[in-house]
Design brief:
The protein is an alpha+beta fold. It contains four helices and five strands.
Length: 149
């Protein structure tokens, strides 16, 4: 084979490789096991696991530690490969009541609809929008100081 052909093959093969990307909290199973319901408090969990990725929107007693591994090929959108969500729930007294792990299987894919949203009024084309005001009666609106000059 010629050197340019080898370079082309190497370039194409490299573009097909998946680029991994870790985002968020990196879970250490030993640290997670050390958090005990009924024993640990918010301050001890913060010292052990660090600050949470997110707290509950309406309830400050739920902490979320989120991590995600994605893979991306060349210029395509990243695809999730793995996701872990550690949910630590506290009671009203600030003591841990539960520690729960959730995975990618529990994530719901929500795709936006590509259909048009119906609106009130008439349906006009692009050309009607551009040339629609040609020939309309009326001039410039008068200013506060009097008639236009």
């Amino acid at each position: 084979m010629r050197p340019p052909a080898l370079a082309t093959i190497a370039l194409v093969a490299g573009a097909c490789a998946t680029i991994p990307n870790n985002m968020g909290y990196i879970v250490d199973p030993e640290l997670v096991k050390s958090v005990q319901p009924g024993v640990d408090t918010k301050s001890s969990v913060a010292k052990t696991l660090g600050r949470p990725t997110q707290t509950g929107l309406w309830d400050e007693n739920t902490w979320y530690y989120v991590s995600r591994l994605t893979g991306q090929r060349a210029f395509l959108n990243p695809k999730p490969k793995a996701q872990n969500v550690l949910v630590v729930t506290f009671g009203p007294d600030g003591v841990v009541t539960s520690v729960e792990a959730r995975a990618l299987e529990q994530v719901v894919d929500i795709s936006p609809s590509r259909r048009r949203t119906p609106t009130l009024g008439r349906d006009s084309t692009l050309l009607e929008d551009i040339f629609g005001n040609i020939g309309q009666v009326g001039g410039l609106a008068p200013t506060a100081g009097g008639p236009p000059q």
